[in-house]
Structure of Response regulator transcription factor:
Amino acid sequence: MQLLLVEDDAMLAEALVTGLTRAGYKVDHAPDTPAARLALSDHAYSAVLLDLNLPGGSGLTVLRGVRERYDTTPVIILTARDQLSDRIAGLDAGADDYLVKPFQPDELAARLRAVLRRAQGRVAPVLTARNIRLDPATRSVTRDDEPVSLSLHEYRTLLAMMERQGRIVTRQQLEEAVYGGESSIESNTVAVYVHQLRKKLGDDLIVTVHGHGYKLNSAP
């Protein structure tokens, strides 16, 4: 399983990466908010360990960006903030657990195992559009019951559109869903993913609404 550790304390991050690696996890480290957003836009992680006090912005901003693009990846907040109001804010933003520093490595490992178990047992509604079936729980897509291989960004684009069936989805909404608000996105990026999805899932599945965005074609 691959984890993302978002922590600006270099010594603590090194200790956590070492311990988690020994426990059998593969760990990427992001020291600040921009690095965390970039990592999350390019990878699908099994879980995220997230500090709140970060250079470049609050960890809560990172968390909200994850949840706003329908990403159910488990997130454990690791922070020195121990006020009840801070815990409530973190949980309300979509965190799965909240661990106050300093903590024992064994407790972190136990909480990580717990959120991963809950994630595996989480029931997510399967989305369908014509002959396309998308299962968020397994991040799988089928066409006529045959598996379709999508890149992470193609998958997020399709998920955002299937979540909004019957409505026009703007390019900005798709950029938010795929990248979580990253500013350095080329203007034609979304069009490229839509083009790839049409090739893999059918030319007429996604309709361009000129001047507005895109819409799923649910007609048979």
